[in-house]
Amino acid sequence: MPRPGPKDFIGPLRPKNFWAKQNKSRILELQRIRLQQPTNKEKHLEAFTKWRKNNLQYDAFRAATYRAYRMKQRPSWADLEMIKQIYLNCPKGYHVDHIIPLKGKFVSGLHVENNLQYLQATENMKKRNFYADGA
Predict the structure, then answer these.
(1) Model pTM greater than 0.85?
(2) Residue 7 within a domain
(3) Same domain, yes or no: 119 and 76
(4) 69 & 103 share domain
């Protein structure tokens, strides 16, 4: 008896649109569902916006961590849990600031807990991405 080959399991070859011809009602149902998806997208956006307003510190931590990761400024040895706590405990009216900016003109810092400080929002916006050495 010959050994079974792949054709024995697949069956006869069918045209590409064979499934479509057999399942017209299913295709119409899927198209109807796709047309309703923009409303789901709007609901998701509304829920996310509400979440962001209630979790500004966590969202700031998430955004800064991702930005630092993209810029390759977050080393693997960085204590992410400590950084997260710094962002979550930030007082109202203050920003978490990088002492040495991630994208400075002459020097660039890392996204690590030792390089973070609380700075009043107005002062942080004045500072921008400059680094003034204490000397």
Answers:
(1) no
(2) no
(3) yes
(4) yes
- Is the domain of 38 the same as that of 85? no
Positive or negative: CA dihedral 104, 106, 112, 116: negative
What's the confidence (pLDDT) of residue 118? 93
Q: How far is CA 45 from CA 38, 41, 52, 55, 56, in A?
A: 10, 6, 10, 15, 16
Alpha-carbon distance 97 to 125, whole Å?
10
What is the length of the chain? 135
Indicate whether 98 and 36 sit together in one domain.
no
Two tokens at 60?
């700031």
Q: Domains in the chain: how many in total?
A: 2
Residue 2 is given by DSSP the state: P
Mean pLDDT by 10 residues, the chain (135 residues): 56 68 87 75 86 87 82 84 91 90 81 91 81 58
The pair of structure tokens assigned to 115 is 């390089």
Q: What is the pLDDT of residue 135?
A: 40
